[in-house]
Design a protein that fits this description.
alpha+beta, Ribosomal Protein S5, domain 2, 5 strands
């Protein structure tokens, strides 16, 4: 483990095939995703609002925390939702009294839906080839 990340709270968030490792501690507002500024990594405002949701629900400022994030797998949406889960888990780990508020907002619920695999003899997972009677 990186010695610079020793006094951080470490959590993991998953969504589809995306996996996000989050290191959070009280600090000066550093927020990096894969060693890049988070607004550069997630340029879409929709994903930025999604990531900020756990802080909004609790009425906390993101500038009070340092967040170091390593994201891999999946797409940008899956990574954003995995990061949202990891942030919510880290905030609960910091103070257990926050759990009911985040639970009520649905931010601690894992969305376990996965893409169904393609099946033999089918065009896609469920779509069959066109059937011709004659």
């Amino acid at each position: 483990m990186n010695p610079a990340l020793v006094n951080y709270i470490h959590t993991v968030g998953r969504r589809k095939t995306a996996v996000v490792r989050l290191y959070l501690r009280p600090g000066s507002g550093i927020f990096q995703v894969n060693r890049r500024p988070w607004k550069e990594y997630f340029p879409s405002e929709i994903y930025q609002l999604e990531i900020q949701k756990p802080f909004e629900v609790l009425g906390l400022s993101m500038a009070r925390y340092d967040l170091i994030v390593y994201a891999n797998g999946g797409g940008i949406k899956g990574q954003a939702e995995a990061l949202r889960l990891a942030i919510a888990r880290a905030l609960v780990e910091e103070d257990e009294a926050r759990r009911p508020f985040l639970r009520k907002a649905g931010l601690l619920t894992v969305d376990a839906r996965q893409v169904e695999r393609k099946h033999y003899g089918h065009k896609k997972a469920r779509r069959s080839f066109q059937f011709s009677k004659r």
